[in-house]
Amino acid sequence: MRSPLPSSVLDLAPVVPVVVIEDVADSVPLARALVAGGLPAIEVTLRTPAALDAIRAVAGEVPEAVVGAGTVITPEQVDAAVTAGARFLVSPGWTDVLLDAMRASGVPFLPGVSTASEVVALLERGVREMKFFPARAAGGTAYLKSLAGPLPQARFCPTGGIGPDSAPDYLALPNVGCVGGSWMLPADAVADRDWGRVEALARAAAGLSAGARCR
Questions:
Q1: Contact 107, 87 (CB under 8 A)
Q2: CB contact burial 34-66 (16+ within 10 A = b; e otherwise)
Q3: CA 173 to CA 154: how far, in whole Å?
Q4: What is the phi/psi pair of residue 212, to 5°?
Q5: Residue 209, pLDDT score
Q6: What is the DSSP code string of 127-159?
Q7: Which residue of the set 61, 118, 131, 145 is catalytic?
Q8: How many whole angstroms separate alpha carbon 76 and alpha carbon 126?
Q9: pLDDT at site 126
Q10: pLDDT of residue 210
Q11: Which of 43, 61, 64, 145 does the annotation list as catalytic?
């Protein structure tokens, strides 16, 4: 049975894998490995020609997965991603035009922000859940902590430069619901189609909690 559409992407798991698919044939076994490891929300980035077909394959063959589209930057990509089966959308940044398209899509979305002004602008438009990107370069946990006081109603999925050692520090913050990352998908494991290794790394990521570091 297909999992229900999430009301919030931030509450599905502590980590959302950020996936770049080069070969559509890898999409289904990769998604199955992530789901088996406890990471059902999977962001397939629209950075390769295979991305939309990968979303379509995962949506059709891995019902336990909640597959979404990342690196969404145009209304056309919004439409194409949702048509392919994306159940949430993630953008690295936002404009009024893109925000309107994501809102009209009918699926949850996380517009990207990196400044307090961008957060306030989204709050004015009724958006409370956002992607914080690029997390490490934009100030990391210190910046997010400084936003929690004046803007407690905003919740974030930080992405960019986060790994298993730093993820718990982000997850400890009251305004962070989950983090995005790709460390459970090392290039050599994907190239070798070592899905058992991917599943093991996903399980470790799914077990991350605030203040608990993996060594």
A1: yes
A2: bbbbbbbbbbbbbebebbbebbbbbbeebeebb
A3: 12
A4: -105, 110
A5: 74
A6: --EEEETTTTTTTHHHHHHHHHTT-TT-EEEEB
A7: 131
A8: 23
A9: 97
A10: 52
A11: 43
Residue written as token pair 């210190």: 142
Which tokens go with 71?
Answer: 């690196």
CA gyration radius, the chain: 16
**199 phi and psi, to 5 degrees?**
-60, -40
Query: What's the pLDDT at 212?
Result: 47
pLDDT digits (tens, 9 = 90+) for 64-101: 999 999 999 999 999 999 999 999 999 999 999 999 99
DSSP H helices in the chain: 27-36, 51-61, 75-84, 96-104, 116-124, 140-148, 167-171, 187-191, 195-206
In sequence order, which residues have a C-beta less than 8 Å from that of residue 96 and are 6 or more positions away?
A: none
Q: Partners of 19 in the beta sheet?
A: 44
What is the residue whose two structure tokens read 């979305």? 109
- Per the annotation, the verdict on 145 as an active-site residue is no
Does the active-site annotation cover 131? yes
pLDDT-flagged residues of the chain (< 50): 211-215
